[in-house]
Design a protein that fits this description.
By secondary structure, the chain is α+β, with helices and mostly antiparallel strands. The chain has one helix at residues 21-34, and strands at residues 2-3, 6-7, 37-42, 48-52, 58-60. It has one domain. The longest helix has 14 residues, at 21-34. It is globular, with a radius of gyration of 14 Å.
């Protein structure tokens, strides 16, 4: 949900496919962090940043291919 500069992810879904426990834990941490995102921006190096209420952003880089 995007409203002005506020961004919220709601009803986040996943396949719930059973993987190795480490991958399941990593997926859950990522989904938990997505649910706390409040805003976004693009850095001067074209990096999409999703900012939670507290802490460091989730960063996505453009495909270099």
């Amino acid at each position: 949900h995007l409203e002005g500069e506020t961004l919220r992810f709601e009803n986040i879904g996943s396949t719930r496919k059973m993987c190795m426990p480490e991958l399941m834990e990593q997926e859950q941490r990522f989904l938990d962090l997505l649910s706390r995102v409040e805003r976004w921006d693009v850095s001067n190096i074209d990096q999409l940043r999703l900012w939670p209420a507290e802490g460091a952003p989730i960063r996505f880089w453009p495909d270099q291919n």
